[in-house]
Write a structure and sequence with these properties.
Helices cover about 40% and strands about 20% of the residues. The protein contains 10 helices and 10 strands. It has 2 domains: about 150 residues, Nucleotidyltransferase, domain 5 (2-Layer Sandwich), CATH 3.30.420.40; about 160 residues, ATPase, nucleotide binding domain (Nucleotidyltransferase, domain 5), CATH 3.30.420.40. About 50% of the residues are buried. It has about 350 residues and is of the alpha/beta class. Strand 4, helix 3 and strand 5 form a beta-alpha-beta unit. The strands form 2 sheets. It has a 5-stranded mixed beta sheet, with helices on both faces. A 5-stranded mixed beta sheet has the order 8-7-6-9-10, with helices on both faces.
Amino acid sequence: MLGIESSCDETGVAVYDIERGLLAHRLYSQIRLHAEYGGVVPELASRDHVRKLLPLVRETLAAAGIGVGDLGGVAYTAGPGLIGALLVGASAARALAWSLDVPAIGVHHMEGHLLAPLLETESPAPPFVALLVSGGHSMLIAVDAIGSYRLLGDTLDDAAGEAFDKTAKLMGLPYPGGPQLAKLAEHGVPGRFKFARPMTDRPGLDFSFSGLKTQVLLAWQQSDRSDATRADIARGFEEAMVDTLRIKCLRALEATGAKSLVIAGGVGANRRLRAGLDEATRRIGARVYFPRPEFCTDNGAMIALAGALRLSAGQIESPAIKVMPRWDLESLTALETR
C-alpha cells in the first residue's frame, strides 16, 4: 500500500505491507517556504505539493525496493485539511490507482494520527483512549474498535498545538514556534512563573487554552523580556500545558475504564508530556503508547497503515476524487476484519 499525506505543509509518502509492516517512508517539510510569512500560506503549500509529490513517490518506491507495478493499492489523506493541498494528494493518488487498476482509498487525517502507534513493535489493541493533539485539534477519543470512535472531549477555542505556536510567536520565537518553545523551556527555572491549569477545576473532558495564552502574554509584557525570563515563562507555560493534558487524560481513563492510552499528533513529541504521562499512567496500573517522534507530525506512514487496514477489511470506494476540509471523526465506519 502506497500512502500519501498532503493535508497541510508536509508532503509524506510511505509504503506499508500488511504482513511485513513499514517498508519505506519519506517526508518533505515546507517549513522554510512558510517561515517568511509566519504561518502556512495555503496556495504556496498546494503548489509545493505539486512539485514534490511525484519525485517523493519515486524515491520512496526505490527505498522500498519495489516498482510501481507491485502496489496493491493507494491511500491518501482525504481530510480534514487545506482543500488545495488535499486535492493535490487525492488527484495524484486516484490517477495512479486508475492507471494501475488497483483500489484507492481516502483516509481521515486524524484516524491516521490515532493509528500511528500501531506502527511500533508494541502497540495497543482496542478498547483504549486516545489524546489527539495535532495542529488545530485537541480531542480525547474513546476507541471501541478501529473505525469506531466516540468523542469524549474537544477544545473550545485554541488547541494545544495552536497555543504552543501562538505563545511562542508572542514572545518573539521563530516559526514554527511550538518546538522552539519546548527547547527553550528546558533551560527555564521551574516555578518562577506558574500559570493556571485551564478547566481542571471543574468536571468534564473539554479543553480551553486561550486563557492560558493570555496569561503568558501578560506575564511577558510585564517582565524584563530578558532571555532568561523568556525561558522561565516558556517553562511555566509548558508545565501548565502538560499538567492540563495529564489531568484530562487520567479523567478519561477513569471515565471509560480503559487501561491503555494513546497520544498522537505533533504535541505528542513533547518530552515533558511523554515523561509525565508515562509516570502518571503507571501509578494507576495503565499504560501509555506514543508513536516515535517522527510519526507524531504529519507523515505518509500513518496514512499507508490506515489505508491498508481499511482495504484489508474489504472497504471499497468509488473512483471519484473527493476531499473533505472538515470531516467528523465519529462519522467513520468500524472495520470488520475478514
